[in-house]
Specification:
Distance between the termini: 15 Å
Order of helices and strands: EHEHEEEHEHHEEEHHEH
Transmembrane segments: 221-241
Shape: globular
Keywords: Membrane, Transmembrane, Transmembrane helix
């Protein structure tokens, strides 16, 4: 497996306009190799200039200094159920040869810890659109409590909060009878072997994702909401450490 030689964290707000533009073009090369349906201008707004309280960017480079992946985390302030909350949203991309080591986990956890230091009493959520079974699988693997998950329905307490956030970000569902699915025009590039792999998977998280979001190959995304409490982060950290230990033992 290829190796990430260096991971660098940046604050886009501290970068000059020319540096942002140059980095956006480099980032877009990685994004465009993994996803279809987005042009450079749209991508730049999503990653480098969203209307967020705070943004942070992680760059992954190989031994030759080539950019091979990225992860951005944006923090927004929202009202959920009449209460002020913080909402984290992320975008990421990593070349296939460098995947499998959960290389963004420590970065994401640091963003959560930084928020708690700034706003210890403000509730925190992660909110995203899962565009591919692999993304939902990671969420299912590390999340202690989230929506939607196998065995849940729209009566779950988190469902109403998720729909409220959906509307606050001006995301329109594909249809009234599928309020948890939206299409942002971003498609994951897959070959036939990848498609067959996910279709044949027997894991509950994969089967659930495919059953509720069969149109993911056309860009449909499944909304997901994760409350980020100390218990939830502790659960994710234990899972990550356990997986690292298992891989080292092989």
């Amino acid at each position: 497996m290829a190796r990430i030689a260096q991971s660098i964290q940046l604050d886009p707000a501290r970068m000059s306009a020319s540096a942002k533009a140059q980095l956006a073009e480099e980032l877009f090369q990685v994004h465009d190799a993994i996803f279809a349906g987005t042009d450079l201008a749209t991508f730049t707004n999503l990653v480098m200039a969203p209307p967020a309280e705070r943004s942070s960017l992680l760059l992954h480079r190989d031994e030759n200094g080539r950019l091979v992946g990225y992860c951005t985390m944006h923090r927004f302030r929202r009202q959920i159920g009449g209460r002020t909350c913080s909402v984290l949203r992320a975008q990421s991309g990593l070349y296939k040869a460098f995947r499998g080591k959960n290389s963004n986990i420590t970065f994401l956890m640091r963003q959560v810890m930084f928020h708690w230091l700034q706003h210890p009493l403000r509730p925190l959520y992660f909110f995203g659109l899962m565009l591919h079974p692999s993304s939902y699988a990671v969420l299912h693997r590390f999340s202690h409590h989230f929506w939607p998950a196998p065995g849940q329905d729209e009566r779950h307490p988190l469902a109403a909060k998720a729909y409220e956030l959906f509307a606050s970000f001006n995301i329109t569902p594909v249809s009234p009878d599928r309020p948890f699915i939206a299409n942002l025009g971003i498609l994951t590039r897959e070959n036939k072997d990848d498609q067959q792999f996910w279709q044949n998977s027997t894991k509950p998280s994969d089967r659930f994702f495919l059953s509720v979001n069969p149109g993911y190959r056309q860009g449909d995304g499944l909304l997901a909401l994760v409350p980020l409490s100390p218990l939830a982060v502790g659960h994710a950290l234990v899972r990550w450490l356990k997986m690292r230990k298992q891989k080292r033992a092989r």
